[in-house]
Design goal:
Elements lengths: L4 E5 L9 H10 L6 E5 L5 H8 L5 E4 L16 H7 L3 E4 L2 H6 L4 H14 L2 E6 L3 H5 L3 H12 L9 E5 L13 H14 L6 E5 L4 H8 L6 E4 L6 H14 L5
Parallel strand pairs: 1-2, 1-8, 2-3, 3-4, 4-5, 5-6, 6-7, 7-8
This protein binds phosphoenolpyruvate.
Amino acid sequence: MRRRLAAGNWKMHGLATDLTEADALARAHPAPTVEVLLCPPATLISRMADVLARTPLSVGGQDCHAAASGAHTGDTSAAMLVDAGATHVILGHSERRADHGETSAQVAAKTAAAHDAGLVAVVCLGETEVERDAGQTLAVVSEQLRQSLPGSATAGNTVIAYEPVWAIGTGRTPTLEQIAEVHDHLRSLLPDHEMRLLYGGSVKPANAAEIFAITNVDGALVGGASLKAADFGEIIAALEAADGGTS
Ligand code: PEP
């Protein structure tokens, strides 16, 4: 049975004062029936880990370097994330692929480094709008999945997040049928039936329940709506309801 996961990606948002949102979330959800993860910017990982200590909520990074250490100014190793209190790391987010030219091969190397350090990798993939309009969605995500996962990937150390690039931060989402089509396809390709498969892209309190009702959607990677405890809390509650639990 795959444990559902609500993962929040704060992106480059958040100062120490915003840790009140993490604290409020933990207080409002002291015993969630689903897994809950918050990924703040690197500067807040350590302090958020302190805030969420002795709660069931986990903390993750948003990227790591493929090397264990070395002359890589400005980068963060997987072991450093662990040292700061992270248990997870988002890798291959489309904003990193676009802003930093990350290739799927580099994502695979980073994912292997994350595994070596004991982190769970949340590996992101998804098509652009041009690719969807050209009917290439399934081919694109299949190839990204094949190239982005190292041989070390298991259901225990890897989560896949399907995030259509055109749906991230835009308020637009695929139809439920389109999400189902991609998730069914990716599920058939995953190396392990227990590996979790999240949907990401403009998940909000208003659409979470219908997305979580789709077969093979094991949760969500949430950007904007994870910044506020009230919004992310509603999404967690929708995931718990879909899971048959209580909020
Ligand atoms: C994301 O950052 O991965 C994301 C899905 O963002 P948003 O929920 O804001 O679209």
